[in-house]
Design a protein that fits this description.
By secondary structure, this protein is of the alpha/beta class. Helix content is about 35%, strand content about 25%. The protein has 18 helices and 27 strands. Strands 3-2-4-1-10-9-11-15 form an eight-stranded antiparallel beta sheet, covered by helices on one side. Helix 7 packs antiparallel against helix 15. The longest helix has 22 residues. The structure holds 5-amino-5-deoxy-1-O-phosphono-D-mannitol.
């Protein structure tokens, strides 16, 4: 994933692009760069490191320009370095391009160009595509827009590309397939971004560019075309997002802000849907597809990373409440298999961004085979939301932190409501259990708020174990995927190797790893597995492992065994049968 920004208009492009890149650093932060078009021609500045490093590097350099593009990179082809950073310049030096995505047939294109005598400065697929475009432009004596269109017909893979050309100082050519692109419409100016955050303070009117569309963007003109050169009328959407929602609001970093936002984001997710007093759940996307959801012979959940973990939790919940068989698939595996999709299967795609390429392609393929796609997505208007037959937004607000937090709990809230709604319609839940779960679900935001009040205790525990080089996260039942998610967060944020595992599986081999240096984090809430997990804790203690247990308030058994405990209010007692 990379972040892209573009601007053309009467303002100075550089400050707008730099500010936009800072907002998009959650999409990639190993190198950054800008290309600026001004009176003194095309200037490209790029640097390994974060946007702040680029700013330091640019101090004193010429940044006078009203048109420009910027990129923050998460390396795919070629290590993070100054040379591999975007923008890339073409062989003639007249074109500059940024790219988010992967050109899968780049090796073949590179060979063709190499045979013609081209050489490459970087190891990137982007530089190959750029020179491929320039080669077409030169050979066909056509304009850049035409060359891009011809080139993209040969490209396989995913991309958003933004190009600028020395001889056209106010024009940006953009195209997308499989990666997100938003164009903001200002007064005599246009903004481009991977999402709407770089343009929020300038305009609320945006166009979400679709796959296989190409945009010719000038200060006072936006032309959209398909790859067949036919004009398309841009569909303008009004953003319902305020600037405050994408700023840090006094927290040291976005992840912390987003963790502490969870009481309100879960509340926002439930608001207008859950009404425990009247025993109702209102979800129009679910109701519109209720017949298929009720009759589903199988639910296949497709997602990646954290969203996949939410899918695993949903497997327990849907099977328990709706009695529908559920399979949870990594989108990155599902899309490359030849999966069997039967009539009556429903696919649920889960994604925070709504743009994850593997998830998007997986559901496109399933849709081609006639599957009903239900999307659970956070970003409104994103590709997965648009391609789904129905769906529900998580309403968690922008998640800027790379490590997903509030989006995960939002996904769980939507999935639980959805399961309850289907179970009620199907008659697989008693009215008493349904009603009690509604009441408990309504209390979750307040309980999460009270849990977060004790967050300082976690700092003490973290300080004690910060020197560990490995960690294990264990849980049973639906706490098993929570353990997987915990391990993912530790790896991502602390760069400490961690594994999540079903607690009862430990004895089948991995227990050999346990010694006095290994912190083992148990997600051990008071549920129907409680006694069993106590046995698992004892197995770890017998091998001198250090046990940190996340337990339900009032649990007296586990504190006697664990080295450290963190107390957790009973969130949803009735789900603990799952
Ligand atoms: O936007 P998505 O939910 O589709 O993203 C999928 C994963 O890349 C994502 O959940 C990732 O694992 C988390 N950001 C990790 O914290």
């Amino acid at each position: 994933m990379c972040g892209i920004v573009g601007y053309t208009g009467p303002k100075k492009a550089y400050p707008i692009i730099i500010k936009g890149l800072k907002r998009l650093e959650y999409r990639g932060y190993d190198s950054t760069g800008v290309a600026l078009l001004g009176n003194s021609g095309l200037k490209v500045y790029k640097k390994k490191g974060r946007v702040a490093d680029l700013e330091d590097y640019i101090v004193g350099k010429n940044v006078q320009a009203n048109t420009g593009i910027g990129h923050t990179r998460w390396a795919t082809h070629g290590e993070p370095s100054d040379i591999n950073a975007h923008p890339h310049s073409s062989a003639s030096g007249k074109l500059a391009m940024i790219h988010n995505g992967i050109i899968e047939n780049y090796a073949q294109l590179k060979q063709e160009l190499t045979n013609k005598g081209y050489t490459f400065k970087s190891e990137t697929d982007t530089e190959v595509l750029l020179n491929f475009i320039e080669d077409i432009k030169n050979n066909n004596n056509c304009n850049l827009e035409e060359a891009v269109r011809i080139a993209l017909k040969r490209v396989t893979g995913a991309y958003v590309i933004l190009l600028i050309e020395e001889d056209k100082p106010d024009t940006i050519i953009a195209a997308r397939k499989g990666s997100p692109l938003v164009i903001g419409i200002g007064k005599g100016e246009h903004f481009l971004g991977s999402d709407a955050s770089p343009m929020l303070e300038y305009t609320k009117e945006v166009v979400y560019v679709n796959d296989y569309e190409l945009a010719i963007v000038k200060p006072d003109e936006l032309i959209l075309k398909n790859l067949g050169n036919e004009k398309i009328t841009p569909f303008v959407t009004k953003l319902d997002l305020e600037l405050a929602a994408i700023e840090k609001g006094g927290y040291d970093h976005f992840m912390l802000k987003e963790i502490f936002e969870q009481p309100s984001t879960i509340y926002d997710c439930l608001r207008g849907r859950l009404d425990a007093a009247n025993g109702t759940i209102t979800m129009s996307g679910v109701m519109d597809n209720m017949e298929q959801l009720k009759a589903a012979k199988r639910i296949i959940i497709v997602a990646c990373g954290t969203s996949w973990h939410a899918g695993l939790v949903a497997e327990y919940i849907f099977e328990e409440l709706c009695r529908t068989p559920v399979e949870v698939e990594y989108a990155s595996e599902f899309r490359y298999r030849n999966p069997i999709i039967n009539k009556g299967d429903v696919i649920i795609a889960i994604s925070q961004s709504g743009e994850t390429a593997d998830t998007l392609v997986a559901i496109e393929k399933a849709k081609e085979q006639g599957a009903i796609i239900f999307g659970i997505v956070n970003v409104v208007g994103s590709s997965i939301a648009r391609i789904s037959c129905g769906g529900a937004y998580t309403h968690a607000g922008p998640e800027i932190g790379v490590a997903s937090t509030k989006a995960f709990t939002g996904q769980l809230a939507v999935l639980i409501m959805m399961a309850l709604k289907i179970a009620k319609e199907k008659g697989t839940i008693t009215i008493e259990r349904y009603q009690s779960l509604l009441v408990e679900l309504e209390q979750v935001p307040d309980k999460v708020a009270s849990l977060l009040k004790n967050a300082d205790q976690l700092k003490i525990i973290a300080e004690k174990y910060k020197g560990a080089t490995d960690a294990l996260y264990l849980g049973r039942g639906y706490n098993f995927p929570i353990a997987l998610e915990g391990a993912l967060k530790l790896k991502e944020i602390s760069y400490i190797h961690a594994e999540g595992y079903p607690a009862a599986e430990m004895k089948h081999g991995p227990i050999a790893l346990v010694d006095e240096n290994l912190p083992v984090i148990f997600v051990a809430t008071k549920d129907s597995y409680h006694e069993k997990i106590i046995s698992n804790i004892q197995e770890i203690k017998a091998r001198k492992g250090m046990v940190i247990a996340i337990i339900t308030e009032g649990d007296e058994a586990i504190p006697a065994l664990a080295n450290d405990v963190f107390l957790y209010p009973m969130l949803m007692k009735l789900l603990h049968h799952c």
